[in-house]
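Quick sanity check, Flagellar basal-body rod protein FlgF:
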Amino acid sequence: MIDNALLISLSRQVALRREMDVIANNMANMNTSGFRSAEVLFEEHLMRGAEATANKRADRDLSYVMDRGTLHNFEPGALIPTDNPLDLAIDGEGWFVVQTPQGERYTRNGSFQLTSTGHLVTSEGYRVLGDGGPLIFNDEDRTISVAGDGTVSTEAGEKGRIRVVRFADQTSLKAEGNSVFRADDVQPEILDQPRVLQGMIEKSNVKPLLEMSRMIEVTRAYASMTSMIERADNLRRDAISALGRID
């Protein structure tokens, strides 16, 4: 019975450490543009104890804690002006499409920049895709203007239209890094009328006070589990010592 108590407490501690890791990552990215906060989803795992035939009273299932997965909060972050013409934000639904070495990915982080080759890229260096492929500028393109529907133009004319897509079910997206997501089993739909804002950036949707509150709760719960494990371990030591004195 004491061993069961120890194992159950340990399962809870492992879950709490996982939850603390997620909270710490949220806090570390509270200033990352387009970052989506996450939380851990746990479930109860019931395991039957000793066989009922070996005991007079009915057995009780043992309840362990299991880490089932990570859920992301896809609520939009606040939009703030930056006066940087390469900063873009999407007002409402939609995702920017970027080209990574692993294929197309999706982000709400519109903190873009130009490379020496004229490519419009993310802060991670991923190329931003338009309807016709990567967006490229040359020396004649001095003033970049982005219309509300994502059409990019300069003094030399139109350069393309930023591809903005939507997903019917965003919960299927998987995070890769801090602000990039991939879609394994779903296909995005082109958003015909996106609302792209130039000179704006979408902040993280992390709520610092909420995360601090969660961190305190997890810390207290972890300390409580540690104390419980120590008491259970002391009980086991006392039991072993008492058995050793029996003639």
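Posting the structure with no commentary besides this: The longest helix spans residues 208-244.
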